[in-house]
Amino acid sequence: MIDQDKIRAAVASILEAIGEDPRREGLLETPRRVAEMYAELFSGIEEDPARVLETGFDEGHKEMVVLKDMQFHAICEHHFLPFYGHAHVGYIPNGRVVGASKLGRALDILGRRPQLQERLTAQLADAVFTTAQPSGVGVIIEAEHMCMTIRGVKKPGSKIVTAAMRGSFQTDPAVVRQFHALAGRVE
């Protein structure tokens, strides 16, 4: 359970630490607003993506399915700044397909935790592979990180691309090529 009282107190302390007055009119409600925002941004901590991925349909389909360009956002655990971009998920069902919205919901759950892009990519691949039990799954995430664009090296427009492959996506180069082609990526 997210403790909003502790967050409010911490934000008031941060405001004081940077030389601001948390009782100033413009900042008076900031601790509450930040606490509510953190409760929303980190709501995935208490959720299990496998739960949403259990919903599927027996269709006998055994060919690749790709959901591409799913927008997402997450908070980087190193600086607590957002990173955001697109995820592409492909899988080869063993007859049972997962609802497209369920893939998006699993991504949202995992993105609503203090995160690293590399971990987010692997966690999504693992959740789909373990829960839906396809013959293979591939996940590619492309994201811009605010910790690189507004501070530090200040390289706006740069993106980190991560990939995680499981099952036949690890062992069959033709499957990987097909995934990249369907996701609109050049291998």
Features:
single chain; 187 residues; alpha+beta; GTP Cyclohydrolase I, Chain A, domain 1; GTP Cyclohydrolase I, domain 2; 2 domains; 5-stranded mixed β-sheet; two-stranded antiparallel ribbon; 8 helices; 7 strands; elongated
Provide a brief overview of the structure:
With 187 residues, the protein is α+β, with helices and mostly antiparallel strands. It has helices at residues 4-17, 30-41, 49-53, 100-111, 117-132, 146-149, 168-171, 173-183, and strands at 56-61, 65-76, 82-92, 95-98, 114-115, 136-145, 160-167.
Share of helical residues: 40-55%
CATH superfamily of the largest domain: GTP cyclohydrolase I, C-terminal domain/NADPH-dependent 7-cyano-7-deazaguanine reductase, N-terminal domain
Annotation, overall tally of beta strands: 7
How would you sum up the global shape? Answer: elongated
Measured between the Cα atoms of the first and last residue, the distance is: 42 Å
* CATH architectural label of the largest domain: 2-Layer Sandwich
